[in-house]
Description:
15 strands; alpha/beta; 3-stranded antiparallel β-sheet; 470 residues
Amino acid sequence: MKPNTHKSNSETRRKFIKSTGIFAAGLALMPSLSIASESDKGMWSFLTGKQDDKLAVMGGKPLRTKAWQKWPMWNPQTDEKRVVDSIRSGVWSRAGIANEFEAAWAKTLGCKRSLTVANGTNALIVALHQMNIGAGDEVLVPPYTFIATVSAVLLNGAIPVFVDVDRETFQMDPDKIEAKITPRTRAILPVHILGLPCDMDRIMAIAKKHNLLVLEDACQAHLAEYDHKKAGTIGNAGCFSFQNSKNLPIGEGGAIVSNDDIFMDKCFAYNNYGYPAGTASGAIGNGSPMLGTKVRTTEYASAIGLSLLPYLETQTATRNENAAYLKAKIEKIPGIVPYKLYPKVNRAAFHLFPFRFQQQKFKGLSRAKFLKALRAEGIPCSSGYTPLQKMDFIKSAFESKNFKRMYTAAELNYEKYMENNKCPNSDILCDQEAVWFTQNMLLGTKSDMDDIATAIAKIYKNADELNKMG
């Protein structure tokens, strides 16, 4: 009888894995993952030593030379007619097309009213003004946001008070809000930054407890959802931006949304010289019952919005699908910690895809060298914001004639203000950890997402050599 030379499948598999070196590398890098899936082959080949390509920043060949999705996306055959017709009409100031776009945007969000204005910054300024926010008031804001959020508070004569962020979510930390509330606090201005929704249940509960208004800055959060409600529709009002980089771009533009008719009528009047809501552009002699400014939208901008709005739902779904796919891949790499969503977030907008870069876990490589190497591989990326609460524009406002007349010298003590508004978590994100990919990159294919993950893995494998470079 012949000896049994047949070996079990498991024994053969163990020997194969051991011989390739994947088993040891897999255990070291990801204890729960010992074998790379087929879709991870490119990424894991760098991690396990099977790929010897040099980094592009060190003289090697870039991993990717293919262009990324251009933005804005514009199809002349399907998208131009509405805009060209609006220009040829000669009616360029806001009129019927603006009304139509406002109605369409409100319907898309599931809210009662929408008002379009010149840009997202002015949407915030107008909304705060019609919430009667002004001299002597404090507004709670996050430090990890675009400058417009805070400048809108200052331009209304109020003082921004910074609430530090949760580094895992990049959002205003509800645990830190109540400690910042004083008798002068009038409103909370949560920002769904990067298109990732804030923890709105907790924010709204705190606002109700302390009788505060809530204005959502949803300028980066088009169609993001928290508890099946669109970002921007949960608080007393919400603001959006339609600037050229945004997920719904019209060049420059913004919107205020709310279910409060009286508030929205006031916003309309304020954006149109104080004339009553519904007054046509260019009308004179109607009388103005309130002081106002002029930040009206245009017909051709509204036409662009109407042309591109039908694509937003599908694009949002694509961004979410690719973001989840990319997150699942790169979180396997040491030192790469992708965003975290709150439990009630149904979907994000992903105006930006963020992750935290942890230098010590990434073989001690600095973020600056990591970003330079990633760009050299053909992957556009950014370190994001700088600490907003430390910028000189706040000091400049405090030193202005108006602020000196509205506040006492003690209230404008900038050193004391800085001491009371330290935000260490935001500083860590800004100065050490945050890395962003732009939303247009998430409109690509799974193969495009593989390129991002593989490039990061390639840098990780070569990090020791890269560290030796000056």
